[in-house]
Request: fold
Amino acid sequence: MNCDRSVGAGVLAVSRGYRKSWCAVACGAVIALTASAQDARAGAIRFLVAEFPGQAQHHDSYVLPLSDPAAIAHARELIKSGLSAGAPIVVAEIAAGANGINRNYLAPGSPPWSWHVTRFESFADFTIEILDGWPGYVEENAERWIANTGGYIGFWTYTVVAELPTGDYDADLDVDLDDYAAWKRSFGSMTDLSADGNGDGNVDVADYVVWRKSVAAVGLVSPASGQRGAVPEPTAALMATWLAFLMRMRRVPR
Reply:
């Protein structure tokens, strides 16, 4: 691997499509607790990217959030069919800094990386050499990697291997009351996005809806007792804080 050259965002990969188009996202409506699937339907789905099955050398992984339907479909096909699905390599833009989402799920305790994916670019059959590496190598000096590559990754021997549970905000690969507690702790955050279930860049009531829909599908089980219980609701104080935040945002000059 050669990391002595810099590359822009120009020719990055030869792919079979699945390229994410640029789009503008508008938001502004107050989200009610009675919101249903309409509120959280466009949430990002998190996938685990790790080494090709049977070819592990570094035994690490990173998290890839996807919201484009074609990209999600191809990621799921890679999980189902493996390399025979074609275009296995993930090309993505990254930034330095932990965001609570990107973690090494293959290490004990799922420790967070000090960098994260900011934009999915494409699935590819191969990439230019400078984008090849592995998550742990980027971790050694994320700023250097970004300076040398223009902020992109395209690891040759890594692909999507699993889909992470929706609503798993504490990174333990299940959805339970601990995830609700994690959502409460990070409520209102725009930096710790571990509980940003819909992928809109902040932790808000919509992310509670994502969690609630997930536990409704599997049933809520208390981690302490192992018994099923009622789904908790956010407190009035928490809701008041969120509504105050929305009002401040509405007053920001455009």
Remarks:
- Helices lie at 37-40, 69-81, 135-140, 142-149, 177-186, 205-218, 236-251.
- The longest strand covers residues 115-127.
